[in-house]
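> call design_seq(struct)
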């Protein structure tokens, strides 16, 4: 094992592209109950249209070129390959910022925030990894890649890049790994900014009685999620290998598995997911999952989270300053619950956007990141 950092370019073979298109052409379609819409999952008619677009109009080479315009690298940490974009601002004194995607997500999530975050009066040097087991970081090769282990590997990455002090931003899985980084590397982490932060009711009657109307609605939405929208999590968290056999063999199946979440977790006022998130951006991430054959290790991240007893054990509150952005769809964070586990110094609630703010509302996300880290320099 070495500390080498190697340049990397994405170069999917023509054979890989042809295989994808051939499999899409040969999709064996199921039927559906009449009038079901989205209530029972992704409608056949919608998926047929999206598969036709993916296998025809969608231009993977354009995505590849856009990603390759940014400096990319790989390195090995704790025995695991780690892929990342490293985009430095022209300002030498810019603040280093680690951007962490979630599921279903990839480095593509952040393409639209790179330029605004690396420019302006308070720019950042950006490090955007594919989380271990995701995308071009490649499948994990052993068990035990918990959120804490991922956080420890990312702390090594930032040290290897020469960053003494850095910020972290993450959503979904990134909202687990980001705070974990603050715990494992507090002497180097300036602050953690999170969206889609998971908070749990404390059980304190006084806390429950003090909830605002907006917080009560958020808690009701969380219950709906647990009761009616969490099947994916239970499968990935308990039987990732069984699920992987289906997703690794069928690109249409992989697409359906992911696009359902773009429908359920984006702006609730939109009828179709591409009305909230650009269709090509969605397909770029699904393509990365397919080309890298990471369905198994991506699902495994949920298994590790479900079975990591230390993750759920009581802990003293974190000490690293934490900023939270709450978006109206697929976001259930409540401040009084968050403050039991995190050192909350910044809290914003927005009225548009959803679970994927870097894709849905990049202007709001960028502005909140800037505001949070600027507040740390004023303290």
């Amino acid at each position: 094992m070495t500390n080498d950092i190697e340049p990397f370019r994405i170069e999917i073979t023509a054979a890989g592209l042809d295989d994808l298109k051939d499999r899409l052409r040969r999709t064996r379609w199921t039927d559906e109950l009449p009038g079901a819409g989205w209530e029972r999952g992704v409608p056949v008619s919608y998926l047929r249209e999206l598969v036709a677009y993916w296998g025809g109009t969608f231009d993977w080479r354009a995505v590849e070129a856009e990603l390759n315009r940014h400096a990319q690298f790989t390195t090995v940490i704790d025995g695991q390959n780690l892929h990342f974009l490293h985009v430095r601002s022209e300002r030498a004194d810019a603040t280093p910022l680690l951007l962490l995607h979630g599921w279903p997500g990839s480095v593509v999530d952040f393409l639209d925030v790179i330029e605004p975050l690396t420019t302006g009066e308070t720019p950042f040097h950006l490090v955007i990894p594919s989380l271990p087991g995701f995308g071009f970081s490649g499948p994990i090769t052993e068990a035990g890649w918990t959120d804490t282990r991922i956080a420890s590997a990312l702390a090594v990455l930032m040290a290897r890049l020469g960053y003494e002090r850095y910020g972290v931003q993450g959503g979904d899985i990134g909202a687990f790994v980001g705070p974990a980084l603050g715990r494992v590397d507090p002497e180097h982490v300036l602050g953690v900014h999170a969206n889609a932060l998971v908070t749990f009711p404390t059980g304190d009657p006084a806390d429950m009685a003090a909830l605002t109307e907006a917080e009560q609605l958020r808690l009701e939405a969380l219950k709906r999620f647990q009761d009616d929208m969490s099947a994916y999590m239970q499968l990935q968290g308990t039987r990732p290998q069984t699920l992987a056999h289906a997703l690794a063999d069928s690109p249409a199946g992989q697409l359906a598995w992911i696009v359902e979440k773009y429908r359920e977790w984006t702006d609730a006022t939109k009828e179709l997911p591409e009305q909230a998130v650009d269709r090509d951006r969605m397909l770029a991430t699904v393509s990365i999952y397919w080309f890298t054959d990471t369905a198994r290790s991506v699902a495994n991240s949920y298994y590790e989270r479900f079975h990591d007893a230390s993750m759920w054990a009581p802990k003293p509150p974190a000490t690293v300053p934490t900023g939270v952005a709450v978006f109206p769809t697929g976001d259930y964070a409540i401040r009084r619950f968050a403050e039991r586990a995190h050192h909350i110094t910044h809290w914003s609630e927005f009225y548009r956007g959803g679970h994927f703010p870097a894709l849905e509302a990049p202007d709001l996300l960028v502005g909140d990141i800037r505001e949070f880290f600027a507040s740390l320099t004023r303290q």
